[in-house]
Amino acid sequence: MTHTIGYCGYNCHLCAARSDDPDVRQRLVDGWRKIFGHQNYTAENVKCDGCLSDGRVADQDCQARPCAKERGVENCAACDEFPCNKMKHLMASSAGMLIWCHPRIASLTEEEYNLCIRQFDSMPNLVRMLARVGRLPPWVADGPEAHMGEEFNVYVEHAVNWARMHLESADYAFLCLAFVEDAYERSNDVEIFGGSCAKESADEYAASENTGTPPAGAFVFYDCFGPVHDEHKNWGHVGLSLGQGQVIHAWDRVRIDDYLDIQNLTPAPGWTKPQFIGWAPVERIFVGYRKKAWK
Are the C-beta atoms of 225 and 271 separated by less than 8 Å? Predict the structure, then answer.
């Protein structure tokens, strides 16, 4: 999970234009058409390798990128002419965009927001960039104005890397909640607090309220009935979202599946197949967390 910030401060790493899945890119294009009125993008021409790459870029009309490359600056904030007319319109916050676009997005879903808007939250990044080059005082870089959930982004990155290191391991066989909680706790030296089983955590986190494609770092929950120590009930199942519909989870081994395809897995004897409930974002998972040094 590489966090790539564009010259203008956009969060390139959050943008679905970089997806290799044309269905994901089509949903992005449909969302941009609904929210911003863009008519020129298709699933093919929106494919982007990122602002800092030498490959394809979605916005062929962008003036900030070629200017920054020509001037040899790390980003727009490092330029003597910042902010200029080439990039002023790119200075945005996700909250500001919701307000500006509200007449068209009264029915906006959380999935559409995650897919189509949050990558444009450039102003917190620009504040950090300005502080880094000495154009704002250093303390600003540590203030809330500069942090777009940055700490959560780091927690997610650590958890995903930890989980991937256990891919194909049988150490967490049928210990799905322990696996996803350990991914966050062990990799970040924190302790989080949910239910005693996956279903209890799903209820506590109100996962059923979020039923679209889960964002990276979310806990993805399922109903799953079966016996544990002679008690038969809905214990549930849970995995960790990698983004773009992919979930890493502990089944008979740690594996990666599409979040909807998990419902088709063959269950253990006496158990039902998982049925998707919804997901809980990292911000909810970390409510009430505390620091803890794990051995």
Answer: yes
Does this model's pTM top 0.85? My answer is no
282 three-state secondary structure:
helix
Cα distance between residue 293 and residue 177, in whole Å:
20
Please name which of 39, 35, 38 lies closest in space to residue 103, comparing C-alpha atoms.
Answer: 35
pLDDT tens string 58-73: 988 899 999 999 999 9
CATH number of 153-291: 3.90.1720.10
Kindly report, as residue ranges, where domains of CATH 3.90.1720.10 are found in the chain: 153-291
Q: Residue 30 in contact with residue 44, Cβ under 8 Å?
A: no
Beta carbons of 15 and 115 less than 8 angstroms apart = no
User: Which two structure tokens, joined as six digits, stand for 129?
Assistant: 């960039």
pLDDT band at 103, cuts 50/70/90?
confident
Are the beta carbons of 152 and 38 closer than 8 angstroms? no
